[in-house]
From TrEMBL:
Name of the protein described by the UniProt record: Cucumopine synthase C-terminal helical bundle domain-containing protein
Domain (Cucumopine synthase C-terminal helical bundle): residue spans on this chain: 182-306
């Protein structure tokens, strides 16, 4: 039985009252994440559904904490902070992944049916839909009905003056726009196949969105998150950190320009701004502030791609038992083809 006071309660408001629930914060078990979350409230975003971890929904969020202080197994009602993917996650049913999670809250027992109903709605409207729907949510303190201010889609202009502060401001302007429950124009065009990248001479846009999904799923949660983790190594210096970052992200293969080629046009300009701004950082804290902003931007683009990815095609891939698969023919080797 959970203990605490009403001050420990957070409301998660879904599309309607019967799809909204309350959770109790675990202050003593995970103070860093709890305090980080409270500083964001009221927080508005959109909900997504996992594709391999069972019955769990989540919402992308700003960086809250890099610490993992309350690693526990998942169960129905667990609310946890996914550090690498920068997401607040809500387990509403069965879990099919064994990794422990960084729990910071627990949904109230009496509200579990509402969480489950919301989870099934998100599943139906996102990963199970041919054309997904944006499911909004707001996290807030009880009784706080003030809505976060919306902001129009930003345009990267001439505000960059070479400093990491101005670069961070430009990136964060884009982040605030991407957090709004409105499909970004680049995402819409990718979803509808209006991209130039292709395989050979065919005009299918499937390859582009598949590649983007896989590429972004590692770039933000793993590459950027690892760079930030390495920045805390006591032997690491700022010049070496900057050099390593450029080696990973820009030298030989410019990740930001590649994403632009695949349809995420804003990443090329913002990536150039980020790269130039690295020359102005003088401390690890400055490096982390700038790099975490860029990581958050990449994570949000990944979440939008996750929302519009054609998961409904899963019905065309037949499921089989291990025994059935092992008993079927392997791929043939092409031989004797006439020109």
């Amino acid at each position: 039985m959970l203990c605490g006071t009403d001050a420990d309660i957070i409301e998660v408001a879904g599309p309607s009252p019967d799809l909204s629930f309350r959770m109790r914060l675990l202050r003593s078990e995970n103070p860093d994440v709890v305090n980080g979350l409270l500083a964001l409230l009221p927080f508005q975003s959109f909900l997504l559904h996992v594709v391999v971890a069972g019955e769990t929904i989540y919402t992308p969020a700003p960086s809250i904490s890099l610490s993992s202080k309350n690693m526990v197994p998942r169960q129905k009602g667990t609310v946890y902070w996914n550090t690498t993917s920068q997401s607040v996650c809500f387990c509403y049913g069965a879990v099919t992944e064994s990794t422990a999670v960084n729990q910071f809250a627990q949904v109230l027992d009496e509200d579990l049916p509402k969480l489950e109903a919301l989870g099934r709605l998100v599943y139906r409207e996102t990963v199970s839909a041919k054309t997904p729907t944006i499911v909004q949510m707001t996290m807030r303190l009880p009784g706080d009905n003030s809505a976060p201010k919306t902001q129009p889609h930003s345009v990267v202009g001439d505000k960059f003056d070479g400093s990491w502060q101005s670069a961070k401001a430009l990136i964060e302007q884009e982040i605030r726009s991407l957090r709004q429950p409105q499909e970004p124009i680049d995402i819409k065009r990718i979803r509808l196949g209006a991209t130039a990248a292709r395989a050979g001479s065919e005009g299918s846009a499937l390859q582009t969105i598949v590649f983007l999904q896989g590429f972004l799923s590692t770039l933000g949660p793993h590459v950027f998150s690892r760079l930030l983790a390495v920045s805390y190594y006591p032997e690491m210096t700022v010049p070496l950190m900057v050099r390593q970052t450029r080696e990973f992200l820009i030298q030989t293969f410019n990740h930001f320009h590649f994403l632009s080629d695949l349809g995420l046009r804003r990443t090329a300009k913002l990536g150039d701004v980020y790269s130039q701004a690295l020359d102005s950082v003088t401390t690890m804290d400055e490096y982390r502030e700038l790099t975490d902003a860029m990581r958050t931007l990449i994570q949000l683009l990944y979440r939008w791609l996750h929302l519009v990815f054609p998961w409904h095609l899963k019905g065309r891939l037949q499921s089989r038992s291990v025994e059935e698969a092992d008993g079927m023919p392997s791929l043939a080797v092409l031989d004797g083809v006439n020109p």
